[in-house]
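Lecture 7, part B: from sequences to assemblies.

Below are the input chains for today's worked example.
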Amino acid sequence: MNHKPFESWLVADEPLMPDQEFDLQEHLKSCESCRRLQSSWQEVEGLFGELLIEQPQPGFTERWQVRLAEEISREKERQQLQSSWVFLASTTGTAFVILVIMSIRFFTTVQTPTQVFVSGMALIAGLLNLTAAIQGAVVPLLEVFFVSVPTQWWLFLVVGAFVLTLVLTFSTLRFLSSRRVSL
Amino acid sequence: MPEIESEKLILAQNGNVDAFSEIVNVHQNAVYNLCYRMLGDPYEAEDAAQETFLRAYKAMKSFDRKRSFTTWLLSIAAHYCIDMLRKRRLNIIHIEDTPYLEIPDPGSNPETSLTESEQQKRIRSLLNVLSDTDRAIVIMYYWYEFSYGEIAKALKLSTSAVKSRIHRARSQLAKSWIERNQTLSGLERQTYESQAL
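Predicted structure of the full complex, as structure tokens:
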């Protein structure tokens, strides 16, 4: 016996056509298996007719808030770690690039250790000469300046510099201190 | 199903935790029930429901207010539970490979049996027959009275797929109920015969 359409009709959601309903009833009279399926589905439907909504333990929302706070702090840590890694990688990368450029310059200009020593000494001598020249130019200028500026002006300059230093320190501290982040 | 006012949703979308906590308060039963029906374990259901709200909170900005919030939320819960069931199955396969380890039958746990009513147990054993997606469909259809269209949207299926899956699930449930009754009557007969002997 072919049960297929009848089995399907027995559990159908939409109402059957009158001729389908008739055929089904005729089939059910002679088919024990489909009758069993029908009563079984009716029992299941009955069970589904009185469904309960299960509830969580009290304090669910509070537990969720705790979990959210933990998740936010974990996320913050992850971001900090990530930015530390980015900083480290960029610093290392920059240092590596500088090292490569310097090595290329070094190997293209200098071949022997004697040449390295001679170039180093020449560089130091050049720097010393430059310092002496700056000293020669700046010291007479300062001498003229100290004599020509009156004492009150000096006082004004010192107080101004002190106030500016205070403002700078305060701003830096405010900028560096961690800001409070509200949830 | 209670729907949240759009004012609360806007606040929650802007990251207001208090507004979202109210949403959690209103929807906790619906989400927990879905997770419980899907996973069949109160502890796992609690964890899944908490995770659902966490995911929803993170994804709040992408929520389209023209959609139903409940459908969106339950869709997150259903997808998460389906993933959990897949992971659980993988773990069970892994444990089965391990020698000398018995897997306890969740239905025969005396603690659970005591707290769970007979009807709840029957429903759970019935739902266990279905595949993960079919189970989610049946739960949304019977517990939340979602339409085919709403279920289709929530589970990213076509409406015709939902219809045919519900039809198939009903047939499976009815057949499984017959088998269960046969097993029970067989057990009763055995008990009767052993008593007679």
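Note for the exam: Chain A has a mean pLDDT of 85. Keep this in mind when comparing with the next example.
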